[in-house]
Amino acid sequence: LTNDVVNVINISIGTALAILMKQT
Asked: Across residues 3-24, what is the average pLDDT?
């Protein structure tokens, strides 16, 4: 994987975790 792909994946995971934490 390229660094750009890894960055996009990390941002996606971070966003998903933030949404989940806001819901609880």
From this structure: 96
